[in-house]
Specification:
The two termini are 39 Å apart. This protein has 17 helices and 12 strands. The chain is 33% helix and 15% strand. The chain is α/β, with parallel strands linked by helices. Strand 2 and strand 3 form a beta hairpin. Bound molecules: S-adenosylmethionine. S-adenosylmethionine (SAM) binds next to helix 5 and strand 6. S-adenosylmethionine binds next to helix 5 and strand 6.
Amino acid sequence: MSASLLPPLPPSFCEFLRDNHIDAAVYDTSRKLPRYVRVIRYRQKSTQAIDDLVQQIQADAGCRAYKVDGVPGFIEIENQAVRLSQLSAYNNGDIVGMDVSSGIAALALSVEPGDNVLDLCCAPGAKLLLIADLLDNNQEKGTTSVVGLELRGTVTGVDISLHRAATCRSLIKKHAGKDKGFMRLFVDDGTTFACKAPQPGWHDPQAVKAASAPLNEGGDKVKCVLSGGSRPWFAPKLLSTAYACSGTQLYDRVLVDAECTHDGSLVHVQKYAQWGWEQLDTQVVDGNKQVTIPILQSKLLENGWRLLKPGGVLVYSTCSLSRYQNEFVLGGFLARHGEDEAVLEPIPLLGITTSPIWTPADDDEWDRAGLSHHRAVFSRMCNAVRLDPLVSNTSGMFIARIKKLQNGSRLEDSAIAPLALPPSREK
Ligand SMILES: C[S@@+](CC[C@H](N)C(=O)[O-])C[C@H]1O[C@@H](n2cnc3c(N)ncnc32)[C@H](O)[C@@H]1O
């Protein structure tokens, strides 16, 4: 067995790990995770075509590659050091790089063709593209008719960052090509985003035309105008009309893959080997960020919930292992929304070994963490999972699948907070 090899993690990052009960061995560089890729439009490919891709990847990579058991469309390449540009399947647009943990988060939505799906923090777009594939109702490329679009459903992506949204748009253009008529992107703040799911019939040019020219009191046609905030930044013509964007329908599925400190993403953390480990201090564990991020996550989760229809499913995920960004954000949410409104459902685990959520180890810890009066909330969380790289052999991830039983009352912004925030640290 190779000796453990921890990178020179800076003191405040180590403090962050201690505060969050994260085992530093996660970052042991002598343990290599496999590289994972995802087959684009895998639902349109036969088993034979996917097997052929695996063979091709194996030949290009010069190491073993195989389909990930139970996670449709994912391929594991044994050697993490393989570069995507080495692979002809990547250069041909047949695969994208995507960790299986991210796949499980998107698959936890159980998207079905016909669903209207909202992805509230969508860029750079790996999960958005997977969701688009899940909506695929097996139309032949380029033949999607108006009726086909209706049966397919829609994907609405939102991201606050213009340059990241631009990357997402490029990804859509590259992989969805002409077949992107059901996807739209907004550059907007997910905590306040309010554009509902597209109106039924949005895909029908005649219906859109009729609806965009309603009669005014005098019986003249008036043009329906979109206000600035509700205009998509990128969308096909029909999906960007006032008719599509001024609907009152809530979404069937909502993904809140929230902004986080990315400490569970080993690929991300390993980049500090080049950037300088000391930068982990400012970029990951900066004192202020430790407080602002869980508050932002709570607001994103709350707004995603507002936009979800009763009977629908929301997935909350982060690529952080921090309890403040995971259990405490989810716990705050469950404390605001009772059992008659929100219930956590099991996540389809698809053969990956997961770890339980963080809970206090004993009575003392419940007290020390100030959580004693939240035991009921923690017991409602037991279906959420952690993917701990030491156990799952994937990147780190927290995933909760929440079913909405009914709408609740709208909460004041000041009421939206995690169960607890990390101790503030003087710099
Ligand atoms: C973890 S990344 C999302 C990854 C993405 N879901 C994927 O699979 O490719 C978090 C994203 O949240 C975005 N973000 C941060 N604050 C936001 C906000 N207030 N509203 C919407 N997006 C936000 C960031 O720009 C970033 O792109």
